[in-house]
Amino acid sequence: MVAHFEEIRTTREIHQWLRKIRVCLVPGYRNSVLDRVVDGLLRHFHHQGHEVQSEPDNSTDVLLTSALFSEPLHWREALLFSMRRRYNLSHTPTVFTLLHATPDQFQALLDRFQAALTKEPPDPADFDFPGLAPQAHQVLIEQGRRGGPILAIERLVQAQAKSIRILLVIGNKEPEEAYLFDLVGAHPRIPGDDPEIFYDDIVLRMVTATSSQEVTNHKVAGKPISLAKWERSTAPKAMRQASLELGKRNFFTPMVRIADLVLVPAVDDVIASQYSEGCFATWEPELEALVATVTGSARPVDKANISYDELALITDVLPDGSGAVIRHVEGLRNDTPSSESVEMMIMDRALPRITLRAGWGTSAEVPVVRSKLHGHRGVAAYNPKHVEHVYLDAPYYHFPVSCATDANAWAIKAAFASSEALRNPEDPRQVVFTVLPGHGSMITEKWVPSKTPFQVIWEYIDEGFLEVENRIPQGLLTYTQDSEGRRILKTL
């Protein structure tokens, strides 16, 4: 484990699947620091072989723009909402909005949120900022308590700048550091000590985000499953029970609704009206399929208290990997499954299958992984006698990717393929997990007789074998052994 971590730390590898992209600057708010950063970024895009365009067109992949820190931008002026109309585009490029704050401004905002988040009960007036919806304090409080003041700042500047991907540059005359924000709440810090490394790093992170593709092109195939067959199967009932049990342990954080944070029209044209954090799925032998939670982007879903209508049936992954193959169930609403469906399904391809024996009520052949739990939570510690941690490939710690992408599916598949506990079904460790930097974690369990789906996971949480926490590493990490033999998270 330690050797693998040392290799990751000392070799700053980039992803082999990165592609050459086209980037265009659309000037917004300007000052000397932002001008310097823009010049540095465009120079490094060019040095890395990417095309820098003078005007956006239908081949543009990335738009760079800028806005004034801590000041609300009207949605009509925001590039995220106006770019297609303004430049007659048939597609939606990825927008990165640059903001600049002095160290004093940034520290003052951190201090304000830190003080406000320690109050009990919190005072909504402490979270009153220009350009936010009246109920925005609820989002800022919840996000701040989950990820600290930096996550509250992230949601604030995203709402004010009307942009999801933000590069917040901190410095007086020169950039001293920067934070790169995205939808799921990633906030990696990029130090500005060495300007060449600084710009190179930011460009590679932007190219990484742009080179991956969404895998949400789900397709329906096969005849619908009868409602009677669905109700006879055990997984749907077990999923509802697991929802409640995981909810009791506060595994799932509340859904973020865009309208609760900022008032903008036509949100669905550029981003979902809301997104839920986390999903889970378990294998149903009788249906030969994965029963998974549905996406929260189409309609609000409380993952801590799901209904049968909030479950979907996944039978395969499309040949091109662009989405999952799903079957409908008669009498259900049949919403689209969670965006993580592909990564939950595809990991089984690299792992063995086992045959269930006496005590299971069936002799079906099933994937060695029974249940899969994804959440925007970290893992602070684990007991290696009962739990195995698996690493992602090295580039994912230097240049993380986000959910619902082919890159994330590849990362998860490769990580779990390396698991000793899963490749050897007789291995006594029943739970295996990996940490997704800037994103969360994926936790899996094996088939354990007399246990319902996810029961091993929640019992391990209760027994302290798996310690889940709000903190999510933003990059390099390892687990070091303490005096009691546990493995404790260490980030760099």
Overview of the molecule:
The chain is of the alpha+beta class. It has two domains: 21-211, Rossmann fold (3-Layer(aba) Sandwich), CATH 3.40.50; 219-491, 3-Layer(aba) Sandwich (L-fuculose-1-phosphate Aldolase). Helix content is 30%, strand content 23%. It contains 15 helices and 24 strands. It has helices spanning 2-10, 32-47, 79-87, 103-117, 136-147, 149-161, 195-211, 227-232, 235-248, 258-261, 341-346, 395-398, 406-417, 420-423, 455-463; strands spanning 22-25, 51-53, 62-66, 94-101, 165-171, 175-181, 189-191, 219-220, 256-257, 274-275, 279-284, 289-293, 311-317, 324-327, 353-355, 365-367, 369-375, 378-382, 387-389, 431-436, 440-446, 466-469, 477-481, 487-491. It has a nine-stranded mixed beta sheet, with helices on both faces. A seven-stranded mixed beta sheet has the order 2-1-3-4-5-6-7, sandwiched between helices. Strands 22-18-24-23 form a four-stranded antiparallel beta sheet. Helix 2 crosses helix 7 (195-211) and helix 5 packs antiparallel against helix 6 (149-161). The radius of gyration is 23 Å and the shape is globular.
